[in-house]
Amino acid sequence: MTTPAHVAIIMDGNGRWAKARGLPRVAGHRAGVEALRNAVRAAGDLGISWLTVYAFSSENWSRPKSEVTDLMGLLKLFIRRDLAELHNAGVRVRVIGDRVTLQPDIRNLLEEAESLTAGNTSMNLVIAFNYGGRDEIARAARRIAEAVERGELSSNDVTAEFLDEQLDTAGMPDPDLVIRTSGEIRLSNFLPWQSAYSELVFLPCFWPDFTREHLAEAVREYTGRERRFGGLAERDIAL
Ligand code: FPP
């Protein structure tokens, strides 16, 4: 199999990385941002066109207020510091997740990143921020129900393809490969609809230790797999 067009990453293990070093959790998140920078460069070098990263989940609000503030601050810093470089490298930035409940300054920064880079075509970086898959599907279902109520849509129009186009990821390809670091083996509400046929690779390293070699290793693992999307392998079709 060829290089995956879309790789999605659950960047997990920042807290444990920090704890193992006797550092505060925020130090793990800071190191995580550095690992993210390297991952974007490495993805570009490997010819990956879409990279989606889980930066803040709808469930992360339940963390201590100080940690939530730290994560919001790191997103702002990341956009302020890295947007110019991303733009120069031809990276288009997109954001998925619920923006309505975010602070206006964060919302403005996210919109600025999207509009500045809207014409870029070398690679797409999708930041999942205040994102949860169930929330994404519920928001789409609500919008569809409202359109039906207004008489603009018939319930028969609601096919899987139609629903797909109502999600935050409308117009984006499904992830071919989902990677999770830190040894946890679950998806934690990350792209549940879109990852229905994705290959999953779980790596034991904590996110701050993730290097381009880890990405290359996950891609190698992916290229060795056989994807059938519910069909048959070619060699079995004639049998
Ligand atoms: C999981 O580690 C990571 C997160 C909840 C946040 C991911 C954030 C970053 C990589 C840095 C921020 C990047 C941006 C662009 C805002 P964890 O805290 O759950 O680690 P643990 O499971 O070891 O406690």
Which strands sit side by side, in order, in the main sheet? 3-4-2-1-5-6
* General form: globular
What's the number of extended β-strand segments?
Answer: 6
The span between the termini is 23 Å
Q: Helix and strand succession?
A: EHHEHEHEHHEEHH
How many structurally independent domains? 1
* CATH homologous group name: Decaprenyl diphosphate synthase-like
Based on secondary structure, the structural category is: alpha/beta
The rounded Rg comes to 19 Å
CATH architecture: 3-Layer(aba) Sandwich
Question: Which key terms come to mind for this protein?
Answer:
239 residues, alpha/beta, Undecaprenyl pyrophosphate synthetase, 6-stranded parallel sheet, 8 helices, 6 strands, binds farnesyl diphosphate
In short:
With 239 residues, this protein is an alpha/beta fold. Strand 3, helix 4 and strand 4 form a beta-alpha-beta unit.
Outline the structure in words:
This protein is of the alpha/beta class. The chain has a single domain (6-131, 174-238), classed as Undecaprenyl pyrophosphate synthetase (3-Layer(aba) Sandwich). 44% of the residues lie in helices and 15% in strands. The chain is built from 8 helices and 6 strands, in the order E-H-H-E-H-E-H-E-H-H-E-E-H-H. It has helices at 14-20, 25-46, 65-88, 104-116, 133-149, 160-164, 212-223, 234-237; strands at 6-10, 50-57, 91-96, 123-131, 177-180, 199-202. The chain has a 6-stranded parallel β-sheet, sandwiched between helices. Helix 1 crosses helix 2, helix 2 (25-46) packs parallel to helix 3 (65-88) and helix 3 (65-88) runs parallel beside helix 4 (104-116). It starts with 5 loop residues before the first strand and ends with a helix. The mean pLDDT is 96. The site of farnesyl diphosphate (FPP) has 18 residues, from helix 1, helix 2 and helix 3.
